[in-house]
Amino acid sequence: xxxxxxxxxxxxxxxxxxxETHVWTPGQDGWMRAEDVAELAQLFTILPPPxxxx
Length: 54
Known about the structure:
With 54 residues, the chain is mainly alpha-helical. It has one domain (5-45). Helix content is 33%, strand content 7%.
């Protein structure tokens, strides 16, 4: 990083960023899972499920 939110959205779509990926943003005390960061959690609510057999 650092990565823009748009870049992280693309990474989530490509499967390179998951809910379990540890991330750090300014103001955080330490690394957190992406799903626990409010502004990133929404990236995962709009993603379609993975294709069958993926």
